[in-house]
Amino acid sequence: MKAAEEAKQNKTFATTDQNSKSLSEVNGSIKVPDNKGFSRTLLAYTGPGVLIAVGYMDPGNWITSIAGGAQFKYTLLSVVLISSLIAMLLQAMAAKLGIVTGKDLAQMIRENTSKTTGIVLWVITELAIMATDIAEIIGSAIALELLFKIPLIVGIIITAADVLILLLLMKLGFRKIEAIVATLVIVIVLVFAYEVFLARPEFNQILAGYVPSSSILTNKSMLYLSLGIVGATVMPHDLFLGSSISQTREIDRNDEANIAKSIKFTTIDSNIQLTIAFIVNSLLLILGAALFYGTNSPLGKFVDLFNALQNPQIVGAIASPILSMLFAVALLSSGQSSTITGTLSGQIIMEGFINLKMPMWLQRLVTRLLSVTPVLIFAIYYHGDEAKIENLLTFSQVFLSIALPFAVIPLVKYTSDKKIMGRFANHTWSKVLAWASAIILVVLNLYLIVQTIGLI
């Protein structure tokens, strides 16, 4: 009887209507070779992990990570490590949900909650997308200003128009998007690896920084920045994105062996790329610690960092305009790669939660404008004042941390349900770790809110 139910369930997933598929224009569009060896199979599955990893190294990470290093040296490296491990666990669950069910997380929430609960979760998720885009848009616009002297407000409008680039790329095929984003990620890694190499950090202290310290919980400033790092590292929208783009590979849901293979290689790809994101986030914090710890330099803004990298009084003999320009190039690469994935996530969330049907170009334009408009209004109100605009960044990352449990709890619930996942439901150890992560995030966020109210 149980086997019959699972077979019926798999048949249902396999016959999902094309119009209801997540990202229907690319769903199942990439063929995977059969029995071609581990390396060739992994290569075929490599790509979605790159798009996921981009969200974990977007411009929102930069201020929080570099500020964390500048203020507390290497202590918060442990937060980067723990956040990255949590991200690997949750993204593997998100991918598995999409592969097994043929539906993304937003679709699953809509189908398995009341209308009121679904609307509340949709609003929170849309706000999280906006918070993510604040960092991406501001980061890209400031990079354009630093590199080409383009006024900030004009730069924000330009970043809004990059949705048209995504429309073109989708016509060329999803593999082209993956390749372009991967190239931008390589630029980011090389830039920061080079800058950290020049900074010559203390290796023994770096290793010690990966060991958790109780001071993180007792120091209010450190806790606030830690939650900013968590919010910037474990991204709510990436869980929705991961559950969708895991379905871009051709999957036979009537064949459990094929499902298991897809889960295995998608998870390997995700973990490899998230390891790269972990390295980038570590490099950011190490750079902040090695160059700026103890200097009392104002480093809360991208422009401050740009100027500091060419100031010998702050960073010493390695200071040069080249370092500053490389920083701006990496910032632009990060912002542009993140806007691509952010726009995809916006579409997934809008389609999944409210089943919105409209022409693809209009849908992408609407999801992008929902995120860009608040930033543009803020920029106009403050007359393009970079300092005022960048004050949104740390707050946006803390908000992402607060919004995270509202994505994590449904994800863990659905992937642990045997009625939904069959034999692919979470093992006991992964359920325990995932629920523990969700509970810890909720408790820390409540603590932060109480402390913040107490300071007002």
From the structure above, extract its key features.
single chain, 456 residues, mainly alpha
Question: What's the layout of helices and strands?
Answer:
Layout (H helix, E strand, L loop, with lengths): L1 H13 L23 H8 L2 H7 L4 H14 L4 H25 L3 H8 L2 H34 L3 H10 L1 H10 L1 H26 L3 H7 L5 H4 L1 H14 L2 H10 L10 H37 L9 H7 L3 H4 L5 H34 L5 H22 L4 H18 L1 H11 L2 H4 L6 H28 L1
Helix pairs in contact: 3-10, 3-15, 4-13, 4-15, 4-20, 5-13, 5-14, 5-15, 5-21, 6-18, 7-8, 7-18, 7-19, 7-20, 8-19, 9-10, 10-15, 10-18, 13-20, 13-23, 14-18, 14-21, 16-18, 18-19, 21-23
What do these coordinates show?
The chain is mainly α and 456 residues long. 78% of the residues lie in helices and 0% in strands. It has 23 helices and no strands. The protein has helices spanning 2-14, 38-45, 48-54, 59-72, 77-101, 105-112, 115-148, 152-161, 163-172, 174-199, 203-209, 215-218, 220-233, 236-245, 256-292, 302-308, 312-315, 321-354, 360-381, 386-403, 405-415, 418-421, 428-455. It is globular and about 65 Å long.
In brief, what are we looking at here?
This protein is mainly α.
Structural class call reads: mainly alpha
What is the count of DSSP helices, taking H or I runs of 4+ residues?
23
The N- and C-terminal alpha carbons lie at a distance of 60 Å
The description of the largest β-sheet is:
none
User: How many strand elements?
Assistant: 0
Oligomerization state: single chain
Approximately how much helix is present in the residues?
over 70%
The helix/strand order is HHHHHHHHHHHHHHHHHHHHHHH
Fraction of residues in β-strands: under 5%
Overall 3D form: globular
Q: Residue ranges: pLDDT <50 for 5 or more in a row?
A: 1-18
Mean pLDDT figure: 82
Report the radius of gyration as a whole number of Å.
21 Å
